[in-house]
Amino acid sequence: MKKAHLLSIDMGYGHQRTAYALESLAIRGNIINANSYKGIPDNDRELWINSQSFYEFVSRFKKVPIVGNLLFALFDKTQAVDKFYTDKNLTRPSFTQKGMYSLFEKGWGEHLIMELSKNYKGEKAPPIISTFFTTAFMAEYFSYPGEIFCVVCDTDISRSWAPVDAKKTRIRYFAPTERAYDRLKMYGVPEKNIYLTGYPLPMENIGGADMAILKEDMKLRISNLDPNKIYQRKYGAVIEKHLGSIPSQTDRPLTIVFAVGGAGAQKEYGIEIAKAFTREIRDKMIKLVLVAGTKAGIKEYFETELRKYRIDALKGIEIVYAPTFEEYYDKFNKVIRKADLLWTKPSELSFYANLGLPIIIAPTIGSHEDINKQWILESGFGLEQKDIKFVKDWLIDGVKEGNFAKMAMHGYIEGNQLGVLKIKEILSECCG
Q: Which of these, 37, 144, 160, 359, is most buried using a 10 Å CB contact count?
C-alpha cells in the first residue's frame, strides 16, 4: 500500500494521539508536526507558538473567578458547535476561518507544503493524511499535488473543520461518528468526500480484525467491574456471545486511570482521588494511575502532593510520564490495557470508551468537550463525575451494582474499534 505524508501538530495531545495510531501509514514511519518540523520558517513557528500559548493560558485562566470564565467564554465562542437541528445556513465560513485564510495569503504554511511537493514535479505525490484541519487547508490552498485526507478527532465538530469554500473542496474526510459525518455535509463538504471510519484507536490494544487482544482484556475488565456478578447474571448470554467466559476473579486490583489533559488543567483531582482511596490502595484493592503525559511540571506536582500527604510510597500509585509524546503514547496504551476505569475530561480520549473502558467525565473545558460529554452519556459509555468529596461512595457503588460493567460492554458492543483498518482500506482503494 502506498504510504502517506502524515501531518499533525504537537500542541496538546488530541491531534498527536490520532496521528500515532496511524503511524504505520506514514512514509518512513515519520509523523510531521507542522508547527515544529525541521526547517520551519521563523514566522510560521511564531504563529503556531502564539496560538498554543493563548489556548493554554485561557484553559488555566478559566479557574479565575468571573474574569476567567468571561475570557474563556469569548474564546470558546470561536470554536462552538451550532445546534444540529436549525434553519441556519451552516455553509457560511466563520470569521475565524476567514482570518486563517488571510494568513495563508501571507504565506503561512506554504513552506511546509512546498517541501512536501518538491520531489514530485510531473508525477502524483503520495497522499497527505492530516489530523488537524488547518494543515489540510494549507495543503489544498497551496495546491499539493496529491490526495488530501483529514482525520476528524471529535464526536461532533464546528464549522472550522470544513474549508471556506467547502462545496468545492477536494479534501476527503475520515469521520469518527455519524454526527460528524452529517455535520460535514451540513457545512457543504460533498458527501463523496466523506467516509465514516470510526476513530483510529491503537491497534496494539485491539489486535487484528478479530480484536483478540481487546477481547482478552475485556474479560478481565468485566470481572473487576462486576465483582458481585449482577451484570453478568442479567446479561450472561450477551457477554458469552461477544467475549466468551469471564474469569471469576483476576490477579490485579480494580485499576483507575486519571489522565490530565495537554493544557495541564484539573491535575488536582488526581490527588483528591489518591487521598480518598488511600486505604484501598494500601490494601491492594485499588490501583491508581496518575497520567502526567509529557508535562514534567505535572509529574512534579503529583510527586510533591503525594509526599505532602505521605502516600508517595504506596506501590499502588503509579505516575505515567515521558519526555516525548511517542514514549508517552506507548506507556499510556500499555497502562490502558490493564485499566478498568478512565477518568478524564472528554477530549479525544472519549473514543477510548470504544475499547470497553468506562469514562468518568471530569468537568469540561470548552464547547467541543461539552459535545463529547453528551456523546458519552447518550451512548451509555460513562458517567459525569459526581462530588469528589464522596468519590469513595459513588464510585464503589457503581462497581458493586455492575453499572460500570454495563458501560464497558456498551462501549465494546456499540463502539467502532477498527478505524485504523478502515482508513487503510480506503487509502488502498483511493491511492493504490
A: 359
Euclidean distance between CA atoms 180 and 48, whole angstroms: 26
Indicate whether 352 and 426 sit together in one domain. no
- CA dist 257 and 260 (Å) reads 10
Q: Three-class SS of residue 68? A: helix
Spatial distance between the Cα atoms of 47 and 28, rounded to a whole number of angstroms: 28
d(CA 64, CA 86): 34
Contact 353, 380 (CB under 8 A): no
Number of domains in the chain: 2
Cα separation, 35 vs 241, in Å, equals 47
Same domain, 240 and 372: yes
Q: Which residues contact 116 (CB under 8 A, 6 or more apart)?
A: 5, 32, 125, 128, 139, 144
Q: For residues 348 and 240, state if they share a domain.
A: yes
Which of 167, 114, 162 has the alpha carbon at shortest distance from 139?
114
CA–CA gap between residue 320 and residue 293 (Å, rounded): 6
List the pLDDT tens digit at each of the 432 positions of the chain. Answer: 679 999 999 988 999 999 999 999 999 999 999 999 999 999 999 988 876 544 443 444 345 454 445 444 444 455 667 777 787 778 888 877 888 899 999 999 999 999 999 888 767 899 999 999 999 999 999 999 999 999 999 999 999 999 999 999 999 999 999 999 999 999 999 999 999 999 999 999 999 999 999 999 999 999 999 999 999 999 999 999 999 999 999 999 999 999 987 666 789 999 999 999 999 999 999 999 999 999 999 999 999 999 999 998 889 999 999 999 999 999 999 999 999 999 999 999 999 999 999 999 999 987 889 999 999 999 999 999 999 999 999 999 999 999 999 999 999 999 999 999 999 999 999 886
For the chain, count helices (H), then strands (E).
17, 12
Strand order in the sheet with 172-175: 26-33, 4-8, 128-130, 148-151, 172-175, 194-196
Residue 299 belongs to domain spanning: 204-414
In the DSSP assignment, the letter for residue 45 is H
What is the H or E stretch that residue 105 is in?
A: helix 95-105
Q: Report the CATH number at residue 222.
A: 3.40.50.2000
Contact, 348 vs 378, CB < 8 A? no
